[in-house]
Amino acid sequence: MNAAIEILMNGLFLGGLYALFGLGLSLIFGVMRIANIAHGELAIAGALALFTLSADWPVSPLLLMPLVCAGAFAFGWLLQAQLLNRVLSPDPMPALLVTFGLSVVMQNAMVGLYGANSRSIDLGAVKTANLTIAGQTIGWLPLGIFLLSLALFGGLHLVLRKTRLGRAVRATSDDAETVALFAIRRRRIFAVAMAVSAACAALAGMLLASRSSITPFSGAERLLIAFEVIVIGGLGSIWASYLGGIALALVHVAGFYFDPASGLLYGHLLLLVFLLIRPQGLAGKAVTR
Amino acid sequence: MTLLQMQKLTARHGDFQALFGIDAHVGKGETVALIGANGAGKTTLLRAIAGLGTREAGQLTFAGQDILAQDPGALARRGIAMVPEGRRLFPSLTVAENLMIGGDVGRRGHWTLPRVLELFSEIAPMAQRPAGLLSGGQQQMVAIGRALMTNPELLLVDEASLGLAPVIVDRVYEALSGLKARGTTIVLVEQDIRRALAASDRFYCMLGGQVSLAGASDGACIEQVSQAYFGENQ
Ligand SMILES: Nc1ncnc2c1ncn2[C@@H]1O[C@H](COP(=O)(O)OP(=O)(O)O)[C@@H](O)[C@H]1O
Ligand SMILES: [Mg+2]
What we know:
The structure holds 2 protein chains of 2 kinds. Chain A is an all-alpha fold. In chain A, 70% of the residues lie in helices and 3% in strands. Chain A has one domain. A two-stranded antiparallel ribbon of chain A has the order 1-2. In chain A, helix 2 crosses helix 7, helix 5 packs across helix 6 and helix 8 packs across helix 10. Chain B has a single domain, classed as Rossmann fold. Chain B contains 8 helices and 10 strands. Chain B is globular and about 50 Å long. Chain B starts with a strand and ends with a helix. At the A-B interface, helix 6 of A face helix 2 and helix 3 of B.
């Protein structure tokens, strides 16, 4: 019984993090209809940047995370405005190839700067601090991450539903040509989406790197998690990513509990099951375009 | 006063030339019909006026100013709005949000969300529903409403009646004549020659990317227009 509660809770907490990571990929796909192959490298780059910053500044890495997110936001914006917006066309292939090239370049640059060693982010005392509710021990960190992810999803939901910018983003996602008639510049919307996506990737990347170690080559693994989140959850709404993140994390946590040698495998199997049986995902609409 | 003026306007889609030197003008407050068979270039012309799409040459002025090189957003802010062919609503946005997208252009004027919902009272109960779920006629009203929300001086309407039941078409044209009464200048593309002539002050008939006939709609000879519409050898 206790094991079941533990798995559920850990799955839920980790799921918020997965969801955040998947959200970044889903946002780009939703708005621009391209898959960003460099999404995993953005996560790794965020973690490595945090590594460098915390070597120089003797404060908790948690405090430096907003700084890295701001950097990732700016990087995402520039990436879209200076590079991806130049290769926009009805054919998704050129943009896909550019993101693939970017992932290779970023990986090589990271190997050059950081070497191939594996490392992880040490969050210090926060990592082991916990509280006890109804006899159940809960780590502050996973709980905090879960609440943060909920808050970020809630915030994004409100921005998308209640603001003029959010309306423009959703309209662009529906019909990127017609928005021009209403003075909405799709290139700017795309840049906003990529900036938010990169910030999500960096944040998730830093937090994931505090749970398990990374190397500059870990990007592909991370990308796979994001893909699994959006295939399992489905496209078309940010809460679909949330559902997908939690489902995937539950399977990972349960997998590691019962079969520590191959926990991730069960996530891949879940991906296969969804691709075969419910390709639109848990909450997604069937993609027709 | 002339609001819109075209001189020797040409446009091409890639290597394909779709407009061959259009000379036309639209006076302030006028309703002008563009008629012509499929492929005549009507949509290309409307899109060129709205700043969408093709590579153009020649002269295009709006309220006396050259707008040939302006982007659609700038033209929307200056008062050119389009109801596109096929309506092109944002299907996942609600009806109200679709209308608000027009309002977001930022031109103040008569048209506000409540007023548009009053004009098209049949879509008011659906204001909070995704626009993609509406019927074709309701979607057409949203598309017109969305353009009105920009408070345009010039309204371009591309085949508003396509695929709609006759009652709905009457409803749409009734709304357009109401707009004319408010002083809005309208250019409308319509396949149905009689309806186009009935709704307009003047017409241009297009054939193969050129104006084949132009004149006053009142008393236009249907046979002559039909010939201009289909070409000489039919
Ligand atoms: N995007 C495009 N690319 C290439 N050719 C086009 C495109 N759009 C329209 N055309 C061609 O331009 C001509 C005029 O089309 P259009 O303006 O849509 O005519 P209409 O609206 O009068 O039916 C047609 O021959 C059409 O095939
Ligand atoms: Mg047409």
